[in-house]
Specification:
heterodimer; A: mainly alpha; 8 helices; globular; B: mainly alpha
Chain lengths: 157, 55
């Protein structure tokens, strides 16, 4: 029974024991999330690192310049957490923007994490385009983190 | 603000991203980039034309 469990193969043909023996460094994933491209850079994938950093940052900056709004948690709105998760994918860019918009006092108010402002201008022509770019940047960076995970585990070159 | 440019820019960024995420060789990246970019860029314009008669 135990032997059966140990030799149980996962989808890519690795056993559970092999997967457990090759854990992915959590700080590496954290760094990959916080700074777009840095995870790949540390793994030696320099070209991919530069491209991912450039694409995610360009998308984020375009969103900001178009007066898009970052998603922030809102009371009585479960979906806002979902959108926030997507935007937090931007890593440090997200926090810098929130700090820029809210300032230190606004960021750590008494009702944290509620009451934050996501920036942007709802009457601007580019408001919804900007949001699209911001969300896209966040989701792309989350995919980058998953890619770092796969490379670090040896599932991908 | 040029909507056409924003469409182009968004399609370009996403196509480059997925080309580098899903392909490792130069030839594969170029092929996937072209395919992804054209699908997003051209289909958006075609859909725009198709929706033109609707209010």
């Amino acid at each position: 029974m135990t032997a059966k469990k140990e030799t149980r193969a996962s989808g890519d043909g690795k056993t559970a024991a092999e997967e457990a023996a090759n854990p992915v460094s959590k700080p590496l994933l954290l760094v990959a999330w916080l700074v777009p491209g840095l995870g790949h850079w540390l793994l030696g994938k320099r070209l991919r690192a530069v491209v991912f950093a450039a694409v995610v940052t360009a998308s984020f900056l375009t969103g900001v310049l178009l007066h898009g709004e970052l998603a922030v948690p809102q009371q009585n709105s479960p979906l806002s957490w979902f959108f926030t998760f997507g935007c937090i994918g931007n890593g440090v860019l997200y926090f810098i923007r929130l700090l820029w918009v809210n300032g230190f006092d606004g960021l750590f108010n008494s009702s944290f994490p509620f009451g934050l402002q996501g920036g942007g201008d709802p009457v601007a022509a580019g408001f919804f385009y900007g949001k699209t770019f911001l969300y896209t940047a966040g989701l792309m960076n989350l995919l980058v983190v998953l890619d770092v995970h796969d490379i670090a585990r040896g599932d991908k070159s | 603000m040029d909507h056409f440019f924003l469409l182009f820019w968004h399609a370009l960024l996403v196509a480059v991203f997925f080309a580098f995420l899903w392909r490792s060789d130069s030839r594969g990246r170029k092929a996937l980039f072209l395919k992804t970019f054209l699908i997003m860029f051209v289909s958006a314009i075609v859909l725009g034309w198709l929706m033109f008669p609707f209010p």
